[in-house]
């Protein structure tokens, strides 16, 4: 790219360029094998940590590299162009560390976050349950206070990083009758007795971003590990998801950029009647629409980032960015495959992987339907 994105600086771009070089040299060469063999993207943590990526969501005082949210997002886009599974793994780590950063005390932050920023520790975020995906207030996991401990019992589903994490931020009901106001959040070390983690789910895409079912059977957690007051867990989760939805938008942008570049290269090389198919108006119109939607998604994402960076509310803008970008990438990857014709449907090329990787982005961190609900609610409230 030969221009600065609106809202970004030369420093932001330089950081993203450094990450892009690592992604091209280290992530991209093994992305296809990771997809085929489903080995974990956590193999890249050490290299990412050396660039500061594992702590980009944290301030310097907690071990982060001191970059802006814009630099972080642009770095995630670069990573996603090379390997969406690796971006998903990082995003799950950010979910866990954001929860401690946004909901924890200064003591909790100092205890748990610096080693996450350095890549020594990996974090996970345990919110979703078999019966409570898009409506987590319906969760059945409960935490019962016994003296200086909470006893947590329940099942969490689709928890990324759970097997490799040092700790999970677990959301559980401390008041089963209070709905969302009865949810509390806890830092739960992965090695506590009573925690069982399944084998990785067999996923359609992002196969290196392993997700697991986690069973908690009478897990005793120190009361000191509760984040905030009882009943504030749902608010913490919603603040974290505002951030995370921009991470999903970044992954969408990265996959879409990769798919568009592949389509342009193919259109220039593929000959029909002795001429590149890029000379055909039908192909040109496809590429134009792909680029238009990609740039529109960038605009929505950068607007949300500007508000986040200024410390202003950005729930609506984050939802719009996530919704539009995740639906955009579905369109762009499908059109890119179409431009490749039958070749795009083979596993010799990355197009079918882009299509599969993109599909989850309309589901996790709040489905497209949930994003529309958030946007509509804010519109009706005059925001």
Can you give me a brief rundown of this structure?
This protein has 383 residues and is α+β, with helices and mostly antiparallel strands.
Please, could you describe this protein's structure?
The chain has 383 residues and is of the alpha+beta class. The chain has 3 domains: 10-117, Orthogonal Bundle (Butyryl-Coa Dehydrogenase, subunit A, domain 1); 123-231, Butyryl-CoA Dehydrogenase, subunit A, domain 2 (Beta Barrel); 235-380, Up-down Bundle (Butyryl-CoA Dehydrogenase, subunit A, domain 3). The protein has 11 helices and 10 strands. The strands form 3 sheets. Strands 1-4-5-8 form a 4-stranded mixed β-sheet. A hairpin with a 2-residue loop joins strand 9 and strand 10. The radius of gyration is 21 Å and the shape is globular. The relative contact order is 0.12. The mean pLDDT is 97.
For this structure, what is the CATH homologous superfamily of the largest domain?
A: Butyryl-CoA Dehydrogenase, subunit A, domain 3
Low-confidence stretches: none
Number of strands: 10
- Say what the CATH topology of the largest domain is: Butyryl-CoA Dehydrogenase, subunit A, domain 3
Give the total of domains. Answer: 3
The amount of helix comes to 40-55%
N-to-C CA distance: 34 Å
What's the gyration radius in Å?
21 Å
* Biggest sheet, spatial arrangement of strands: 1-4-5-8
Largest sheet: 4 strands, mixed
CATH architecture of the largest domain: Up-down Bundle
**Mean pLDDT value:** 97
Number of distinct helices: 11
The global form is globular
Strand content: 5-15%
How would you classify the helix and strand content by structural class? alpha+beta
Give the H and E element order: HHHHHHEEEEEEEEHEEHHHH
Which CATH C-level class of the largest domain is it? Mainly Alpha
């Amino acid at each position: 790219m030969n221009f600065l994105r609106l809202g970004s600086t030369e420093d932001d771009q330089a950081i993203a360029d450094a990450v892009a070089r690592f992604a091209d040299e280290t992530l991209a060469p093994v992305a296809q094998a990771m997809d085929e063999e489903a080995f974990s993207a956590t193999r890249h943590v050490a290299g990412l940590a050396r660039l500061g990526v594992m702590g980009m969501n944290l301030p310097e005082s907690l071990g982060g590299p001191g970059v802006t949210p814009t630099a972080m997002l642009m770095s995630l886009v670069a990573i996603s162009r090379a390997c969406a599974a690796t971006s998903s793994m990082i995003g799950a780590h950010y979910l866990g560390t954001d929860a401690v950063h946004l909901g924890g005390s200064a003591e909790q932050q100092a205890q748990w976050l610096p080693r996450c920023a350095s890549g020594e520790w990996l974090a996970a975020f345990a919110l979703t349950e078999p019966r409570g995906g898009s409506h987590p207030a319906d969760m059945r996991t409960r935490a019962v206070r016994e003296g200086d401990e909470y006893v947590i019992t329940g099942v969490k589903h689709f928890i990324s990083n759970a097997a490799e994490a040092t700790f999970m931020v677990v959301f559980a009901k401390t008041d089963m009758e209070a709905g969302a106001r009865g949810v509390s959040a806890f830092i739960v070390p992965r090695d506590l007795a009573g925690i069982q983690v399944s084998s990785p789910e067999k996923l359609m895409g992002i196969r290196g971003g392993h997700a697991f079912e986690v069973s908690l059977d009478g897990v005793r957690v120190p009361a000191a590990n509760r984040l905030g007051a009882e009943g504030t867990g749902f608010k913490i989760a919603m603040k974290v998801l505002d951030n995370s939805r921009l991470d999903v938008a970044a992954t969408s942008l990265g996959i879409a950029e990769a798919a568009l570049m592949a389509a342009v290269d193919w259109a220039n090389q593929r000959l029909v009647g002795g001429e590149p198919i890029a000379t055909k108006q039908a192909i040109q119109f496809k590429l134009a629409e792909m680029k238009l939607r990609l740039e529109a998604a960038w605009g929505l994402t950068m607007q949300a980032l500007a508000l986040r960076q200024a410390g202003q509310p950005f729930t609506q803008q984050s939802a719009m960015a996530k919704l539009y970008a995740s639906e955009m990438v579905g369109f762009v990857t499908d059109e890119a495959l179409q431009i490749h014709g039958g070749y795009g449907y083979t596993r010799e090329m990355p197009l079918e992987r882009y299509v599969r990787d993109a599909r989850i982005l309309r589901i996790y961190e709040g489905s497209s339907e949930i994003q529309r609900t958030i946007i509509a609610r804010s519109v009706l409230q005059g925001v």
